[in-house]
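Extended Data, panel c. Modelled sequence:
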Amino acid sequence: MKRISSFRRQRIAGPILVVAALFTIATAFGVASALPNAQLTITSGTSTLVSEGKAIFLRSCSSCHGLNAEGGGIAPSLIGVGSAAVDFQVGTGRMPLADMSQQAMQKKPLYNPQETAALAAYISSLAPGPASVINESLSYERDGNAAQGGTLFRTNCAMCHNFAGQGGALTNGKYAPSLMGVDPKYVYEAMVTGPQSMPKFTNATISTQEKLDIIKWLQAANHEQNLGGASLGRVGPVTEGLLGWVLGLGLLIGAAAWLAMKAK
């Protein structure tokens, strides 16, 4: 206390305290003013993206999904589906779809990535839902377990996509598409959104880690070499045996018929 009292009696103490007080006030004001500005910039950018997405939606999607994405007689509501559903459906070219009674097939996307992101931002602004991802955010290469992923895939997915991920037929003329060559982010988004006939796998059913395991196994299967020649859909010895019987018996019958004709 004696030192403080002695310092306060110094002639230079006043100016030093004034400068320190001004510096503290200026610093506090700068921090306080920077935070709202940063928030304003983020909000402004998001608002612009949402506005752009809404314009695209009203122009190209509202005729089926309704002016407020509430759905209609030929298309479901999009409220609460999240940006993941939009990124998957639009990014893979499945939407827009001319005939909603048909199964949506993967084709060349109508919208570029910026327009797809805008649509996703608009739909996600209506209600919370599963968020879209990018390939770089999925750490399946580092954290995934391919062996565990193969077991999970055969347990939960093989009944539709076949045990090698080559796709397969479903009821009522529908089919499960092949998963070979599909971007990891679309595999993940399909699991969390459940497009068309596919069930939705929440974290209670298949955890995030298990989803990464499945993706890693699919990537390994996609890059696996066919050392035995043609893969024949990788459905195992049944197809190979059938092909052998059909071709083998066909050649034998043809050879027998040719020999009989030559004998005459």
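The first strand starts at residue 168 and ends at 169. This feature is highlighted in the accompanying rendering.
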